[in-house]
Every structure is written in structure tokens, then in C-alpha cells.
Write a structure and sequence with these properties.
Helix content: over 70%
Number of helices: 3
Distance between the termini: 40 Å
Shape: rod-shaped
Number of strands: 0
Oligomer: single chain
Structural class: mainly alpha
Length: about 130
């Protein structure tokens, strides 16, 4: 009669456990990488929004200044001054509104990698709980 020793079964069990641990670590890494990519895309859209508002504000302020200069140049030429003045005020006001929006958005802290760090901290806490003897 041949009996298998406990050493062989123990090695197979150890190999399976190691294999499962590696598979779990790879799955965790994949999930974290996907989360990181999502956060990078969100940050890209936030920066695009900031740049769009900055360019819009610069354009509106430039047009407002040009119209204000025309308004002053034509100050004594019937009612065209009122029209140019209204448009100048509208463009300047639009530019100031965009600048205010830019300041508020730029003052907000970036949320980049916040979700990834939170998930990694949760993973670490879970691993620490498993390591403690019961």
C-alpha cells in the first residue's frame, strides 16, 4: 500500500493559496489602475474647463476694451455711443463673471487621486485585519 504523505498535499494547498493571493493582488491592482485612469480623465476635463473660461474671459475683456475706446472716440456722434457703451459694458461684465467663476473653480482643491487613495487605505485596513490573530 502506498500512502501519500501530508507534505505533498500541503504543498498543493500552499501553491493554491499563493496562486489565489497573486490573483487577488492582480485584480486589486487592475481596479486601482482603472480608478486612476478615471481620475486623470476627470482632472483633464477640469483643466480644459479652466482654460476655456480663461480664454473666454480674455476675449470678452479685450472686446470690451475695444468697444469702450470706440465709445469714447465717438462720444459726440449722436446715439451710437449708447449702443457701443451698452455692448462694452456687456462684454466687460461677461469677462468679469468668467474671472469670478475661474477664481472660485481654481480655489477648490483638486480631487485628483482622492478616490484611489481612499480605496488603497481601505484595502490596507482590510489586509491588516486579516493579519491579526483572532
Amino acid at each position: 500500500m502506498t500512502q501519500s504523505t501530508g507534505g505533498e498535499a500541503g504543498r498543493e494547498g500552499l501553491f493554491a493559496a499563493l496562486k489565489n493571493s497573486v490573483a487577488t493582488l492582480i485584480a486589486i491592482g487592475k481596479t486601482r489602475a482603472e480608478l486612476l485612469v478615471t481620475e486623470l480623465e476627470e482632472e483633464k476635463f477640469r483643466l480644459m474647463s479652466l482654460w476655456s473660461k480663461a480664454i473666454g474671459a480674455a476675449f470678452m475683456l479685450a472686446v470690451g476694451v475695444v468697444l469702450a475706446i470706440f465709445c469714447l472716440a465717438m462720444a459726440f456722434w449722436e446715439y451710437r455711443v449708447v449702443v457701443f457703451g451698452v455692448f462694452a459694458v456687456a462684454f466687460i461684465a461677461g469677462g468679469l463673471v468668467l474671472i469670478g467663476s475661474l477664481k472660485r473653480q481654481a480655489a477648490e482643491p483638486s480631487k485628483m487621486f482622492r478616490a484611489s487613495l481612499t480605496e488603497l487605505e481601505a484595502d490596507m485596513a482590510q489586509l491588516r485585519r486579516r493579519d491579526k490573530p483572532e
